[in-house]
Specification:
- With 398 residues, the protein is α/β, with parallel strands linked by helices.
- The chain folds into two domains: 259 residues, Type I PLP-dependent aspartate aminotransferase-like (Major domain) (Aspartate Aminotransferase, domain 2), CATH 3.40.640.10; 134 residues, Alpha-Beta Complex (Aspartate Aminotransferase, domain 1), CATH 3.90.1150.
- The protein has 14 helices and eleven strands.
- The N terminus is likely disordered.
- Bound molecules: pyridoxal-5'-phosphate (PLP).
- Pyridoxal-5'-phosphate binds next to helix 5.
């Protein structure tokens, strides 16, 4: 996004987030009155004169660089998340890798939360190591204690809150204070909260990453990522996107735009149903613990309450000790909960997880097998009945 685009955006009046998701990034007056903007598909962009081509003197120059479809969604997300510029990517993972790549060079050291989304870890271990960038994983609840891990060559702190699968809530303001004092970049994977339930730039974050595949697209029908930066970080991120050739697809970008329109409404329901299911599960004898930041039983509930504006529909459950056979009996015949990767769509999902093998800074301790649940938009009574039948099958097989 250029400086003039930014100025244009700043002039627009601010509305509340639920209004912004409906109205930003579209203008019926320039689309023959149609409510939704057209999808620009394209590679070549024609220049009217060779002079203009030499100077690249027009708003769009090549499909990979930007299209009106991409620009519309980038501007909308930038404003909703509260940054100055957004770059879209072809997936959430590409948003993570592009962002980290933007800030490091050979000889650097970075700090990454031990609870980070597993492929983020893989990027650090398999690619950054090869490029001469060293990673230290830290306890996600370290807060201001992270200061002790900072070295002279430390470049950035990567956070994700709550953590993937295990849902530790990070003290972002405390970490931001250290990042500021030590002059480090502070990055956040903000996918769980979406741009609506955590405002990263109000808490000292420099760059916020969204796996837009999840709640922004919201229908499990496209892959998309978004990197939103503050003023200080925007140029470095834009440069990394450019040199890596990162380019979201036109249809996927449009699906992101369409998903955005209902984001606030969907999230409110995911939050309500998610909490109801979490409370119901917490009271079940088959359940040892529920990992949901909005439940008072969550170890960092107070931090969540202080910093977040809401909870999405994704949380964890630790079962009482259960044999593999009994777990399979429970999960294999669920009617409504699908088993598969990703989340954030309209449908409920369940997946077993065990981070024991790859955690290095902390030790994962659980009473029994752990499940990650995504609560979709179905009626919660049907979801409870589905799990209840699963618990019965578990009991029969134990
Ligand atoms: C899914 C996910 C990603 C990656 O997004 P994709 O679009 O699947 O590549 C990154 N971070 C978090 C927290 C995620 O849940």
């Amino acid at each position: 996004m250029s400086a003039s685009d930014k100025k244009h955006r700043d002039k627009k009046s601010r509305h509340r987030p639920a209004t912004e998701v409906v109205h930003l990034g579209r203008d019926p007056a320039t689309a023959h009155g149609f409510v939704n903007p057209p999808v620009y598909r394209g590679s070549t962009v024609i220049f009217p004169t060779v002079e203009k081509l030499w100077k690249r003197d027009q708003e769009y120059t090549y499909g990979r660089t930007c299209t009106p479809t991409v620009k519309a969604l980038e501007e909308a997300i930038a404003q909703i998340e509260g940054g100055v510029a957004t770059e879209l990517t072809a997936s959430g993972y590409q948003a993570v890798s592009t962002t980290i790549f933007a800030f490091v060079e050979s000889g650097d050291h970075i700090l990454v939360s031990d609870s980070v989304y597993y492929p983020t870890r893989r990027f650090c271990d398999r690619l950054l190591t090869k490029l001469g960038v060293e990673t230290t994983y830290y306890d996600p609840v370290i807060a201001a204690g992270i200061d002790k891990l900072v070295r002279p060559n430390t470049r950035l702190i990567f956070t994700e809150s709550p953590g993937s699968q295990t849902f530790e809530v990070q003290d972002i303001p405390a970490i931001a204070a250290v990042a500021k004092k030590r002059k480090l970049w502070l990055l956040l994977d903000n996918t769980w909260a979406s741009p609506l339930y955590f405002r990263p730039f109000d808490h000292g974050v420099d760059v916020s990453i969204q796996a837009a595949t999840k709640y922004i697209v919201g229908h499990a029908d496209a892959m998309l990522g978004a990197i939103t930066s503050n003023e200080r970080a925007a140029k470095l991120v834009a440069n990394a996107k450019d040199v890596l050739g990162v380019c979201p697809g036109s249809e996927e970008t449009y699906l992101g735009q369409r998903g955005l329109r209902t984001l606030a409404t969907r999230l409110a329901q995911h939050q309500k149903s998610g909490l109801e299911m979490a409370r119901w599960l917490e009271a079940r004898p088959e359940v040892a613990r529920v990992l949901h930041p909005a439940l008072p039983s969550h170890p960092q509930h107070e931090i969540w309450k202080r910093d977040f504006l809401g909870a999405s529909g994704l949380f964890g459950v630790i079962l009482q000790p259960t044999s593999k056979k009994a777990l399979a009996a429970m999960l294999d015949n669920l009617e409504l909960f699908g088993m598969g990767f990703s989340w954030g769509g309209y449908e409920s999902l369940v997946i077993p997880f065990d981070p024991t093998s790859y955690r290095t800074a902390t030790r994962w301790q659980a009473e029994g097998p752990a499940l990650r649940l995504h609560i979709g938009l179905e009626d919660v009574e049907d979801l409870k009945a589905d799990l209840e039948a699963g618990f019965a099958r578990r009991a029969g097989a134990n």
